[in-house]
Amino acid sequence: MFNFYVDKITAADVKKIAATLDRGGVILSPTDTIYGLGCRADNSRAIRRIFEMKKRPVLKPLIVLVSSWAMLKKYYFFNSRQESAYKKIREASPARPLSVILKHRGLLPPLLSANGPTGAVRITADKLLLKIIRKIKMPLVSTSANLHNQAQLSDPRDIIKLLKPGPALAIIGGRPKNQPSRLIDLSDAEHIRILRS
């Protein structure tokens, strides 16, 4: 397994990380919330591997990270009323990452959303993940790097020892906040629900 360090990553390294994802690999990396496991959001086999690594029931959906409004709207229904609600919620707590549940367009594997009509998505603020997503031109699956229903670990070395099979590569460093994002259900703009404040 290759290790990359956030403060030393070059453009060539980003290309290698993207190539690993394009081959169906799972990566471990810091995010704008916690250390997470990630893969291409269109690769069902890699998504299933994440479920296996975490021992997570497949009926529990995974979050998707996107790099822009345009990418979000490509994969999820998001109208002007929902956007207005999102911005108001975001302005109330600008420092806290915000994930939203929206109706998806059916362009990604149903395993991501547990075969349901909605999915969780976040426009990531993490600079490295933004570069990776733009390089692969595809949303990135993201989920906490821990075993299902067990405490989140903050040391990537402990995570690597715990997860079997392990990720294809690890990105070490950065300053993940070690707390999950806020989670708001905007799938019905008329009835906004705060699921995790």
Quick description:
The protein is 30% helix and 24% strand. The chain is α/β, with parallel strands linked by helices. It has a single domain (2-196), classed as DHBP synthase, CATH 3.90.870.10.
- Which CATH C-level class is it? Alpha Beta
The strand line-up of the biggest sheet is 1-8-2-3-7-4-6-5-9-10
Instruction: Write the CATH architecture name.
Output: Alpha-Beta Complex
Q: Encode the helix/strand succession as letters.
A: EHEEHEHHEEHEHEEE
User: Radius of gyration, rounded?
Assistant: 16 Å
CATH homologous superfamily descriptor? DHBP synthase
Question: Do you know the CATH topology?
Answer: DHBP synthase
Tally of individual helices: 6
The parts where pLDDT drops under 50 for at least 5 residues are none
Overall 3D shape: globular
Number of beta strands: 10
What does this structure look like?
- The chain is an alpha/beta fold and 197 residues long.
- The chain has a single domain (2-196), classed as DHBP synthase, CATH 3.90.870.10.
- 30% of the residues lie in helices and 24% in strands.
- The protein contains six helices and ten strands; from the N terminus they run E-H-E-E-H-E-H-H-E-E-H-E-H-E-E-E.
- It has helices at 11-22, 44-54, 69-75, 80-92, 127-136, 156-162; strands at 2-5, 27-30, 35-40, 63-66, 98-103, 118-123, 140-144, 169-172, 182-185, 193-196.
- A ten-stranded mixed sheet has the order 1-8-2-3-7-4-6-5-9-10, with helices on both faces.
- A hairpin with a 7-residue loop joins strand 9 and strand 10 (193-196).
- The radius of gyration is 16 Å and the shape is globular.
